[in-house]
Amino acid sequence: MMSRLLLGFAAHQGVGVVNRFTESSEKYALAQEEARIRDKPFLIAGGPAGSADAYSDNPLVGPLAQAKVFFGIKAHGCGDLCIDIDPHACDGCVFEEADITNLPFADKEFGAVLSSHVLEHMADALTCQMAWKELHRVADVVFICVPPKSSLFAWLVPDHYLWVRHVGETILEVEERDTGAKYLVDIDGPPIRR
Fold this sequence. Notes:
Elements: H1 2-38, E1 42-45, H2 62-70, E2 81-84, E3 95-97, E4 110-116, H3 125-138, E5 139-145, H4 152-156, E6 162-168, E7 171-176, E8 182-186, E9 192-193
Parallel strand pairs: 1-2, 1-4, 2-3, 4-5
Antiparallel strand pairs: 6-7, 7-8, 8-9
């Protein structure tokens, strides 16, 4: 019985990984098309390569992150410009180091932005709101990819501080992992506690 449960759990997690890669690819293609239609550049926030060094001190996550980099597994393409706080995450891309809460770009400079596995790393709902507002300021259309709360891997990453869900054009549902506090985050105004 226990082996069936473990097998079922492993299968669920494996399907989840495949779904996340599929979601990243689909959202990348949609964002790329939106930027093309608008005849503006396409911005990537959160490098597709990840970083082998990011979790080197974590015995569970570190080897998986290193394997991803070693095998050249990228979550999606580079867009016209890739921003991250870690240059290695954007290997092979046109790169600019930038803080997602204070982007060095003009208003609506980009036709679309794909924020990939960034928002869950924000320290709290207010910082997430700042990042969310900045993404909307610099791009006409915003797409996000974030891990679901059901992902074991996401739970093992120590700097995943938030669970984030996109629930409306400019609205996110954010749960702070350490406190369980839930918020609605919009580009206008502070997060609203639920």
